[in-house]
Amino acid sequence: AVVSTQSTGKPYVRSYDEEEQRVSSLTYGEKYKQLAMKFGDSRIQKTIRGKDRIRDMESNTLDEAMQEAVVSVDTANLTKQTDLNHNDVLPPMNTNAKDLNDVFLITDLISESEITALAPFTAVIRECTQVHVNAWKEQNKYPGFMLSRIPVVMDDDHMAHLYLSELLYISNLITLLKLPRKSLSHKKTNFPNTPSVVIDSIYKKFTSQGQHEGKIRTSMSDKQRNKLICHILALSLIVDKFCVRFEELCKDTGVKSKILADTYRSMGCVINKLKGDREKGQLVAVMKLPVKLPPVV
User: Fold this and answer.
1) What is the pLDDT of residues 173-218, one digit of tens each?
2) Residues of 151-173 as b/e, b for ≥16 C-beta within 10 angstroms?
């Protein structure tokens, strides 16, 4: 039996049958929440409390929750990124992989500290419904590539978090790619709802800083821009299980389909055209084993 308190404020002993009935009526998520709040660490409890606050929110309230998540992220443990290698445009690839999932190592694309920092944001997005997605489409808040792949229904919390982290990272990379050169210096303004650890990382990998007329200016070379596009495409391959219809990415990035197709080819993909009536002519990038990169010319 379990000791509890009724509305009268007087303690009483709940019968075993009553307790069993109460527990059996809980959903899997409610049971998970109950256990996590009792035995989980402070980070998990903070995430659950955040999810409770947004359960019945409309899209504008979800936006506020995303802003709150920025404040809640601890960036003190930012791991040191390796210096940008200007000789490499393609992300690290294991061309000898026996499984497509081993071609890219996700931590070569998104560091563990960034994945951790994105947890409050993925918790918010996982609660969204199609109503929120439609509202975000109207507001052009996120790229179409990302929005067409949510809401997410996954039983595995870790895999859902990783999947949404990849989509959010693609969104941030597209934002950086489309920024006018004069706006590159305004980090916080350009990425208001993004953890500092993510902003600092993508700026370090894809931009450079220098002095101009006594002021520090941020710039992006053509090589860095190409590296950024390759990074986006590598993540798109992971998200879409190595078969990507990239028409949406053309619209999101403003990059012509021929350039994206050539970039996918440089990563060892083949480009196919769909033949169905509704999808006729759409281009698809497919990666197959063994991965063969074209010769460097």
Assistant:
1) 999 999 998 899 888 788 988 999 999 999 999 999 887 777 788 9
2) eeeeeeeeebbbbbbbbbbbbbb
